[in-house]
Amino acid sequence: MSKISKFFKGGGSAASKGRGGPSPQEALARLRETEEMLSKKQEYLETRIERELAAARQHGTRNKRAALQALKRKKRYEKQLSQIDGTLSTIEFQREALENSHTNTEVLKNMGYAAQAMKKVHENMDLNKIDDLMQDITEQQDVAQEISDAISNRAAFGDEFDE
């Protein structure tokens, strides 16, 4: 089955049909294939337009009828090229929107995963225990400071006594 018929007939993997729709990766791949096909068609039409223009110039005033026919074909090709340009723009917009949507979905999934991990980490923590621990640390720091102050004071033998 050709790529074009797969695209229009909705041919694809059985996995995507069973889920009720294609995955973002499958849809992106198809959009890229379609973009590639349309780009090739653009190139083909551009060469055809150049050929018809060359044919019209070649016939010039000698064979007006053949020159007019070549110009008419050129005009048809230009119309097709214009339609393909519009279609290609629409497909590019769709692909970019799908890529952004897929990125946002992945970011959201990862944020949820991180939230679950944080919840698991905090699961064993009790705010009262943390508060008690912080008070104990503060008390021990105060005790350590008192000890340090007592050790660092000069030993003034007899200076501290009141006569």
Automatic annotation (TrEMBL):
Q: How does it sit in the membrane?
A: Peripheral membrane protein
Record key words, sorted: Coiled coil, Cytoplasm, Endosome, Membrane, Protein transport, Transport
Please report a single Pfam family linked to this protein: Snf7
User: Positions of the region Disordered?
Assistant: 1-35
An example Gene Ontology biological process: late endosome to vacuole transport via multivesicular body sorting pathway
| Major subcellular site | cytoplasm
Ion transport recorded as keyword: no
For this record, the Gene Ontology CC terms, alphabetical, are: cytoplasmic side of plasma membrane; cytosol; ESCRT III complex; late endosome membrane; multivesicular body
**For bias kind Gly residues, which ranges apply?**
9-21
Gene3D superfamilies from the xrefs? ESAT-6-like
Subcellular location per the Swiss-Prot or TrEMBL entry: Cytoplasm, Cytosol; Late endosome membrane
For this chain, the family text in UniProt reads: Belongs to the SNF7 family.
Protein's recorded name: CHM4C protein
Q: Which gene encodes it?
A: Chmp4c
